[in-house]
Amino acid sequence: MKIRINNFGAEPPTYLYETPLHADRQLNIVKYSPNIKYGKLQEYLDDGWEDIGNSIKKDRCTIDKNCFTTVEAKYVVAILTYDPKEGCTDLKTVGHRVLELTKKDRETFFSVYEIAAKMLCDQDQS
Fold it and tell me: Closest Cα to residue 32, out of 4, 68, 74?
């Protein structure tokens, strides 16, 4: 299940290894923005970054090549988890990212939050 309104969305988290039990009870609320690295791999290589296969490296920094292939970047603003014991959702913000949103972005964030919470609760009812 995915939701997107303007530059905010809700989507299932991705896991590097094994997906945990009850992962279907969680959604990440993400903010999309233009990817400043999009299409600039060659610029980085010309600037002395070393191609090491799936990523590039310079000094002590490594960047995955996928960072150069998507038009948009996204980051998690909050994590929404359904609590079946309480029959409701819990929202955990990431740092103070919610506090850094503009008024318009906060309105969109809360619209996505409301829809995502309802979806998680309705999913449990079925």
Answer: 74
Domain spans in the chain, listed from the N-terminal domain onward: 3-35+71-125
27-64 pLDDT, tens digit each: 999 999 999 999 999 999 999 999 999 999 999 999 99
Question: Is the whole model's pTM more than 0.85, yes or no?
Answer: no
Measured between its terminal Cα atoms, the distance across the chain in Å is 15
- Measured CA to CA, the distance from residue 7 to residue 81 in angstroms comes to 21
Cβ neighbours of residue 15 under 8 Å, at least 6 residues apart? 23
CA 116 centroid distance within chain: 14
Strand boundaries in 48-124, DSSP class E: 50-51, 55-58, 61-64, 72-83, 88-93
Q: How far apart are CA 74 and CA 64, in angstroms?
A: 15
| Mean pLDDT (whole number) for 81-104 | 94
The string of pLDDT tens digits covering residues 60-80 is 999 999 999 999 999 999 999
| Whole-angstrom distance, CA of residue 13 vs CA of residue 1 | 11
